[in-house]
Amino acid sequence: MKITLSVIKADIGGFVGHSSVYKDVVNKVQEVAEDGKDKGIIRDLSVLICGDDIALVMTHTKGVDSSEVHELAWNAFKEGTEVAAKLKMYGAGQDLLADAFSGNVRGMGPGVAEMEFVERKSEPVVVFFADKTSPSAWNLPLYEIFADPMNTAGLVIDPSMHDGFIFEVMDVYSGMYISLRTPEELYDLLVFIGATSRYVVRAVYRKSDGEIAASASTQKLSLMAGRYVGKDDPVLIIRSQAGFPAIGEILEPFARPWLVEGWMRGSHTGPLMPVSFKDAKPTRFDGPPRVIAAGYQITDGYLIGPSDLFDDPAFEIARKDCGLLANFLRRQGIFEPHRLPPEEMEYTTLPKVLEKLKDRFKLVDEKKAFIK
Length: 372
Ligand SMILES: [Mg+2]
Hints:
The chain has 11 helices and 15 strands.
């Protein structure tokens, strides 16, 4: 049986500020999406929260980019927005960039990660969901999970993974993508995905049979809206076990922090902190950026779960290291590299400040400067 797993997420209003979401808003989104179950649009539903974002994890048999499923998610977020607006939640409806639904939520604001596959004898999947960062946050862990044998023992040991994987990498500025095969094109892959402000991994396939292994949301909200409307907090789906990396190999890159774009006003560099569902509430300097991992067994198209995978003391050291890195970076204040470089600030509120000062610049006359 072919099953589609669709994860569609949006920030439709924060409680308080950008830190979390209010229960009435979540309940409305869930109620509308549940209705889609009764109508036969989707088979099952699970709602996840990370910071000020809500994600709908849905299973169905309508394939990737189904307008029916996308419309259901759109309507759920639209009705949730009405509740958020009434309660004057912060930035109500900020990710919904269009007035009316037009066939597909891609390009309309919400983030989307989807994949279609034939359900295996056992189908474990992990849905990662991050707040206060951007889709390129997944570049480093995806490289380690699918291309680094020092992280993923299965690349060496398991004959069904030994051929390697194919990475689809997108240039978020041009919208073009390139497919690169690992291990043979590993260094070419790293040329691109190491440049996290421009290139993002959108999908990973098993090389031996082309089976989908991972799918990420690649929306860059700032470029879609042409103005700053919040960081495009991303989602990522990864299939696990039996020809794919084990759950522990998928989680291992998160056992120590690395730096990502996002944090306060989407304008800073900060460590990505792996947390349990209950700790997915970024408050310190609106961060540091958070990530949760929700594990599911998909059984006859139903979602058994979620299992809160970072709710494990083994990730305590990573969280502590994030705190130390946060202290270190905060000492840098408004100075780069804690603050992002000018090209990344282009879609924030900073250009408005620059506009006011632009006429005050004078050409440097070196001679005069020396005489004085
Ligand atoms: Mg957010």
